Amino acid sequence: MTEQRKDSDASRAEWPAWMQRAQDGDQAAYNRLLKAMVPLIRKVVRRKIDDAILVEDVVQDTLLTIHRVRATYDPSRPILPWVSAIASSRAIDALRKRGRHRSREVHDDDALNTYADDAVPADDAGHAQDIRERLSHLPDRQREMVEMVHLREMSLNDAAKHSQLSIGAVKSLLHRALVRLRQTGADDHG
After folding, report:
1. If we measure between CA atoms, which residue out of 87, 15, 93, 102 comes closest to residue 47?
2. Contact 16/75 with Cβ under 8 angstroms?
3. What is the pLDDT of residue 146?
4. Are 117 and 70 contacting, i.e. CB atoms less than 8 angstroms apart?
5. Which of 158, 170, 180, 184 is placed for a possible disulfide with 154 were both Cys, Cβ 3.0 to 4.6 Å?
6. Is the pTM of this model over 0.85?
7. How confident is the model at residue 185 (pLDDT cuts 50, 70, 90)?
């Protein structure tokens, strides 16, 4: 094991104590903790995102999130899973905002226009029309939530902000919409 690795592991062993001191108001311990966490956060984020600029944005967002929720950390519990979960969540949120897997997509408009995709059914337009038809039977707010969260793949948090509703209200509207869609689907087939 290299010296740097030993220092890193020794430092990580101190993280719960530093966080507890930070929770008690020790700014020096808090600064030391945040600096020590950056390499681990960056490593977790890089596993999900391959865009260096976005990685750094997510690292900063993760540090801000840790700052906001630091009071929720229980020093008697392991800190690495807590930090990793926050970093992973922030990375996923960033990917959702940016568009799912956009950084890894290859865009070849000539190929898309020249070659048919056998995986897409010929009746794809009919399927899209069926979805539009089913959504048109929903009340406006329920339809908007389904479109935002399931079709545009917005996070619940983003949908709540966009519609100026609480996350609970968004979940409730989605639940009612999906129940209604299942009922109309069963009616159509029954």
Report:
1. 87
2. yes
3. 79
4. no
5. 158
6. no
7. low
